[in-house]
């Protein structure tokens, strides 16, 4: 029989799929003997069953009631017992943390009778009514679907009536009256009474949490974080403990290290006389955790002790939620904590030093995406002047954008291409679309553990929170700092690393990590941690990493970043700029002599380009690809030419013969589908002299570099092969030219000749192609385009967002390799290519070569190297190392 409910004493951290992250860790802490309020977890499997069938799975109600009885027996009180009620919290807890995205209902078990019991047992009548008020409000909105604004309005009206500045000034009688109003509102809005039976409250709360898995907020968050939609959430039912019973009570959030920088030492926020929700919502400003040491030294010492235990046990940064009820400490949650990229590198290095984890484990704890983030520029603080205001540096990085004051405006402006900063007093899960759309988030309230901070860190988005100096006026769509007013649309700069806000667009400088890659300058702290991770990755990786570069400058940079050669040198840029005239002459040539003259003009220019690149990559392989794009790309635009000719005619001038000829050529060469037309090897085969000129330039560059004492290692790559015949013909021509240059110069020139595999037919006939190819390089941009039939230049803007919304794919196949389709072609080509030519060298030079997930795929597929843009080289090195773990 399926079991849907697990007591905290039964589960463990390895059961997160079934119990969700929170449930698994509550069980783990219970097993470790830490003070966890007793409770049980309803599994994700129960949730999935409920969401598929729309009804409560058989046996669930019975299991819940059995576990409830066990809880009641241990507590010596019943749920909602009129004279001394046991109260429960009901919280979501999915496999992957989704902060604030799903529902929580507290104080289950209170009703018109037990509220008096709670008042008596706690000796605090106001507290009892406030708890009941919270339950009716949360239950009414979450379970019964009443708009929460209705309750807030009722509260505001009562406060106005009493002249109370905040809800702390409402007394027990006021709150009792509010409960009546809330209950009436529920009846009025739903036609139903607020349920008085504690067991019914519990049952409906559990189902409401299940349902919240499919709430809009949760779905949006999952899409953003690539969390699968079919996991479902577990539900944790736990005995309530109260942090709002007076000054000797409180709630807090703590980290075993600083999640922003990774610095050692306990760290967190504490709010006295408050419930956990108040801390996370950032509604009141918290005090630093150290303050708890002054307020309650004993509980603080105990907390530090538990945190030490947790970090040693989990061998990682843990974050913790705790409550102190009348001096007694309770642990409400722990998990391996989210952290910034900076903290991830710093913590990994420290844990290795502390002997808690191995160097390989340290490498597994950092990511290429994180590294890429650290390579972003920061503000040039020497040039920015004084900050407008300061806040808490909650999520690092530098961002510039126009201030906007609500989520909808952020989304609207971002969709129109504007960069925006979302400015709020505090954020709620409803602000999520705006946070996604914004470059940065700025709040005037809340600490490092507020919603804004947690969510922004998770997204890698810049965030400054708790900037108390600013007053946000969402209605007036402005904020003020002292005498300065910043209206909506005004550009501001947000420094999430320093917690500063600057007026205008602040100038940016490179990051220290980037400087390290550029210069090799190694400093203590973050740079050292990054360097160590890179060293470890380079030590374990099997994949080589090359760069896509086509200028000596890019080649040199790539080499500094650790590239072990060039995997793709595109030669098309060598046909642009002031060389266009020569290219035009080549295209328009009417005789062989004219064409040869034009090609002879291009030859020395290309040779010079190749010499520079071979020099920058001396001793390392440089794969030079023969010309790929259709020739008409190098001619002027058709409309532009036609307008020029028409204008000349209108002015009574004779039309330029050259322009007329050009227009004629453009018309002749026009293709409806140029990406599927006369390009790549096809061009080389039909445009006489082109291949020979390019190969001669390469060969002569090799000769020159050799004569200069260099070690040039050029490889010649043929693009867009469909069939082995094409390659055979081009290869004959290439080899003839290489032989001619060798003979003429007396310097032997040997360049391997290989091909790109970027069309499905080539992948499927790779065994035959390998007979002519000395190496393969997958062009996954074109291979994705042609396998899916997606125009790479159009579809992403045209309809990918709809496809992503519908879940047809989770990420663009142009960004991360589609393992199932394109990946399968890669695997076939690797297997058949190597079967035909053992030891065949195979790489990839499409954009996917720098994408972390794709790098893992290429490692698994047995490629020899990946090639990516110079800036992605460190990312690819790191991920290639991680893939090998
Ligand atoms: C490719 O198609 O993946 C490739 C690297 O070539 P290009 O992007 O130049 O078409
Ligand atoms: Mg291509």
Overall, the morphology is elongated
Which molecules other than protein and nucleic acid are bound? Answer: phosphoenolpyruvate, magnesium ion
For the residues shown, what is the average pLDDT? 92
Helix-strand category: alpha/beta
Named CATH topology of the largest domain: TIM Barrel
Low-confidence stretches: none
The total beta strand count reads 31
Strand order across the largest sheet? 12-22-21-14-15-16-17-13
Distance between the termini: 39 Å
CATH classification, class level of the largest domain: Alpha Beta
Taking all Cα atoms into account, the compactness measure Rg is: 33 Å
In percent, how helical is the residue content? Answer: 40-55%
Q: What kind of sheet is the major sheet?
A: 8 strands, mixed
| Strand percentage | 15-25%
| CATH architecture tag of the largest domain | Alpha-Beta Barrel
Pfam family, one: PEP-utilizers_C
Keywords: ATP-binding, Kinase, Magnesium, Metal-binding, Nucleotide-binding, Pyruvate, Transferase
EC number: 2.7.9.1
Catalytic activity: pyruvate + phosphate + ATP = phosphoenolpyruvate + AMP + diphosphate + H(+)
Description of the structure:
- There is one protein chain.
- The chain has 4 domains: about 50-55 and about 70-240, Acyl-CoA Binding Protein; about 250-335, D-amino Acid Aminotransferase, Chain A, domain 1, CATH 3.30.470.20; about 380-510, Glucose Oxidase, domain 1; about 540-570 and about 605-625 and about 690-885, Phosphoenolpyruvate-binding domains (TIM Barrel, Alpha-Beta Barrel).
- With about 900 residues, the chain is of the alpha/beta class.
- It starts with a strand and ends with a helix.
- Strands 12-22-21-14-15-16-17-13 form an 8-stranded mixed beta sheet. The chain has an 8-stranded parallel barrel with strand order 24-25-26-27-28-29-30-31, surrounded by 6 helices. The chain has a 5-stranded antiparallel beta sheet with strand order 1-2-5-3-4, sandwiched between helices.
- The mean pLDDT is about 90.
- The structure holds phosphoenolpyruvate and magnesium ion (MG).
- This is Pyruvate, phosphate dikinase.
- Its cofactor is Mg(2+).
- It comes from Streptomyces xiangluensis.
């Amino acid at each position: 029989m399926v079991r849907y409910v697990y007591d905290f004493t039964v589960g463990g951290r390895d059961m997160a799929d079934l119990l969700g992250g929170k449930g698994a860790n509550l069980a783990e802490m219970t097993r470790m003997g830490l003070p966890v309020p007793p409770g049980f977890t309803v599994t994700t499997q129960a949730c999935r069953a409920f969401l598929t069938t729309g009804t409560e799975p058989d046996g669930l109600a019975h299991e819940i009631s059995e576990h409830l009885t066990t809880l009641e027996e241990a507590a010596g009180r019943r749920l909602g017992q009129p004279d001394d009620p046991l109260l429960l919290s009901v919280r979501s807890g999915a496999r992957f943390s989704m902060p604030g995205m799903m529902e929580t209902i507290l104080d289950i078990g209170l009703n018109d009778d037990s509220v008096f019991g709670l008042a008596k047992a706690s000796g605090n009548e106001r507290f009892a009514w406030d708890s009941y008020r919270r339950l009716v409000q949360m239950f009414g909105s979450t379970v019964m679907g009443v708009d929460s604004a209705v309750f807030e309005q009722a509260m505001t009206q009562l406060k106005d009536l009493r002249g109370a500045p905040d809800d702390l000034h409402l007394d027990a009688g006021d709150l009792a009256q509010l409960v009546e109003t809330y209950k009436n509102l529920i009846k009025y809005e739903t036609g139903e009474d607020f349920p008085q039976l504690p067991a019914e409250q519990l049952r409906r709360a559990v189902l409401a949490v299940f349902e919240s898995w499919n709430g809009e907020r949760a779905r949006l968050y999952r899409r953003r974080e690539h969390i699968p939609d079919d996991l479902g959430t577990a539900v944790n039912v736990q005995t309530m403990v109260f942090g709002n019973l007076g000054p000797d009570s409180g709630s807090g959030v703590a980290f075993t290290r600083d999640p922003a920088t990774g610095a050692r030492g306990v760290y967190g926020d504490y709010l006295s006389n408050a419930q956990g929700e108040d801390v996370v919502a950032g509604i009141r400003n918290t005090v630093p955790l150290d303050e708890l040491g002054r307020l309650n030294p004993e509980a603080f010492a105990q907390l530090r002790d538990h945190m030490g235990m947790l970090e040693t046990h989990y061998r990682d940064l843990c974050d913790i939620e705790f409550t102190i009820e009348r001096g007694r400490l309770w642990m409400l949650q722990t998990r391996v904590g989210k952290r910034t990229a900076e903290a991830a590198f710093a913590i990994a290095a420290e844990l290795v030093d502390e002997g808690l984890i191995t160097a390989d484990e340290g490498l597994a704890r950092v990511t290429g995406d994180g590294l890429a983030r650290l390579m972003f520029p920061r503000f040039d603080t020497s040039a920015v002047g004084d900050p407008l205001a300061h806040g808490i540096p909650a999520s690092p990085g530098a961002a510039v954008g126009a201030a906007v004051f609500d989520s909808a405006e952020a989304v609207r402006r971002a969709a129109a291409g504007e960069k925006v900063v979302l400015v709020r007093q505090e954020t709620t899960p409803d602000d999520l679309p705006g946070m996604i759309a914004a470059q940065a988030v700025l709040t005037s309230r809340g600490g490092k553990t507020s919603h804004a901070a947690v969510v922004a860190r998770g997204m890698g988005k810049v965030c400054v929170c708790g900037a108390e100096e600013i007053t946000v006026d969402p209605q007036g769509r402005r904020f003020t700092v002292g005498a300065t007013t910043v209206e909506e649309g005004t550009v501001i700069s947000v420094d999430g690393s320093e917690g500063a806000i600057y007026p205008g667009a602040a100038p940016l400088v490179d990051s220290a990590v980037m400087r390290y890659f550029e210069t090799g300058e190694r400093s203590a702290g973050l740079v050292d941690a990054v360097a160590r991770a890179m060293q470890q990755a380079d030590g374990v990786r099997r994949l080589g990493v090359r760069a896509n570069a086509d200028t000596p400058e890019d080649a040199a940079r790539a080499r500094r970043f650790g590239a072990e050669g060039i995997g793709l040198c595109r030669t098309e840029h060598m046909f642009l700029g002031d060389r266009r005239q020569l290219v035009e002459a080549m295209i328009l040539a009417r005789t062989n002599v004219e064409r040869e003259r034009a090609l002879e003009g291009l030859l020395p220019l290309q040779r010079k380009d190749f010499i520079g690149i071979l020099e920058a990559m001396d001793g390392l392989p440089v794969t030079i690809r023969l010309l790929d794009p259709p020739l008409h790309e190098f001619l002027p635009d058709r409309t532009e030419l036609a307008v020029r000719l028409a204008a000349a005619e209108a002015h009574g001038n004779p039309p330029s013969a050259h322009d007329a000829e050009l227009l004629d050529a453009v018309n002749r060469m026009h293709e409806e589908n140029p990406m599927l037309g006369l390009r790549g090897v096809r061009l080389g085969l039909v445009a006489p002299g082109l291949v020979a000129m390019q190969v001669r330039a390469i060969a002569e560059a090799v000769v020159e570099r050799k004569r200069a004492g260099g070690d040039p290692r050029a490889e010649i790559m043929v693009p867009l092969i469909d069939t082995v015949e094409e390659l055979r013909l081009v290869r004959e021509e290439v080899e003839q030219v290489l032989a001619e240059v060798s003979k003429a110069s007396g310097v032997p020139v040997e360049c391997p000749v290989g091909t790109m595999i970027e069309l499905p037919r080539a992948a499927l006939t790779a065994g035959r192609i390998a007979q002519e190819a000395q190496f393969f390089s997958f062009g996954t941009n074109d291979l994705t385009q042609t396998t899916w039939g997606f125009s790479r230049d159009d579809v992403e803007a045209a309809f990918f967002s709809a496809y992503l919304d519908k879940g047809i794919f989770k990420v663009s196949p142009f960004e991360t390799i589609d393992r199932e389709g394109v990946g399968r072609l890669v695997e076939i080509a690797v297997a058949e290519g190597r079967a035909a030519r053992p030891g065949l060298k195979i790489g990839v030079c499409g954009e996917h070569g720098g994408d972390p997930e794709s790098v893992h795929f290429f490692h698994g597929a047995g490629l020899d190297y990946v090639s990516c843009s110079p800036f992605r080289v460190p990312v690819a090195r790191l991920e290639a190392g991680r893939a090998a773990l």
